[in-house]
Amino acid sequence: DLSLWLLPRLSVSSLFRFSLNGFIDTSDATPDAAASAEQMRLAAAQFIESLNILGLVASALNSVARLPSLLALDTLDLHSPINALAFTIPIESGVFALFLLVPLFFLGLLLAAVYIEAVAQGVRPLENAPRLAWLPRVGTLWLRLIVFSLVLGAILFALGLVVLIAQSFGPLGGEIGSFILGIVAVGWFWIAIYLFFTVSALALNQAGLVEAIRRSIFLFRAHFWSAIVLVVLVVFLDRGLSLLWHGLTVTPVGVILAIAANAYIGTSLLAATMVFYQDRMIWMEKIRARARPVGRVK
After folding, report:
1. Which of 2, 27, 282, 283 has its CA 20 to 30 A from that of 99?
2. Rounded distance, CA 114 to CA 135, Å?
3. What is the mean pLDDT of residues 211-237?
4. What is the rounded distance in angstroms from the CA atom of residue 143 to the CA atom of residue 112?
């Protein structure tokens, strides 16, 4: 967040701005649908203008590794307090944007792995481990987070392809386009719900990615309502308090306080998620152990 605030903006808005009007077409829509589509277009335009390389990296890290960021997709239009750095560099080439985005994202995942491992050490039962035992854990977690990000990227690509196919049948502001968008949004919601505890399983159990996904899905199926309540509370506190933190960003001191508060709360929510996951998995292992048949004594 400090780098997003202090460093120059690497804007990629020009790569998306020209396709916005053609993507959301209101010429053949009904008045109500046209009004809804216009609101969608204005919101999308504001979102596009806020896009920059570092913000996209931070947003992706938040989505994959639960790395808390207040200014990931900054619609507040904050400028660096350092006058020499308060400028924007437009990125006109998509290839160059990817050349910057991919290495920065992988480097960010490494830092996220260190962060997640540090939180997990406070959640795991106490153990007498060598001083540098966390290093191989971080390396393994980093590689698995990379694979996890590729899986999520493939899912998003497939959902985006569905939206593009739906857009070819008519404008997204129309009834068919809105219906398809709703289907895609619901699908992504449930995917995100069932993968919510994957990072916790990767960090606490050092499980492989497939096993971590299986454990996350199994936990939701076994403790659906309590898990849903936890997810709702985490999202509510994260999004709700971010509105409060945004209210502090009117002065440089307020920005620093907002960043620190958001990082503290975000880390606490990640630790709470890990504690919930660990307690439920230990409880289910005890139930399984009691349910195992005892061998006959000859």
Report:
1. 2
2. 9
3. 91
4. 12
According to DSSP, the residues that pair with 11 across neighbouring strands are 52, 90
What average pLDDT does the structure give for the chain?
83
- 142 in Cβ contact with 64 (< 8 Å): no
41 closest CA partner among 167, 172, 170: 172
287: part of which helix (H) or strand (E)?
Answer: helix 252-291
Contacts of 110 (CB under 8 A, 6+ apart): 138, 142
Nearest CA-CA partner of 102 in 59, 53, 144, 67: 53
φ/ψ of residue 91, rounded to 5: -100, 115
Residue 52 DSSP symbol = B
SS3 129: coil
- CA 90 to CA 101: how far, in whole Å? 14
Residue with tokens 């694979």: 147
| pLDDT for residue 36 | 66
Q: 153 and 60 in contact (C-beta within 8 Å)?
A: no
Q: And the tokens for 220? A: 């939701």
d(CA 113, CA 16): 31
Rg, the chain, Cα only = 22
Token pair in block for residue 277: 């996951």
193 contacts: CB under 8 Å, gap ≥ 6? 220, 228, 231
Chain centre to alpha carbon of residue 163: 20
Q: What are phi and psi of 30, to 5 degrees?
A: -70, 165
Q: Report residue 17's pLDDT band, with 50, 70 and 90 as the boundaries.
A: low
φ, ψ at 260 (rounded to 5°): -65, -45
**DSSP characters for 54-122?**
HHHHHHHHHHHH----SSTT--S----SSGGG--EEE---HHHHHHHHHHHHHHHHHHHHHHHHHHHHH
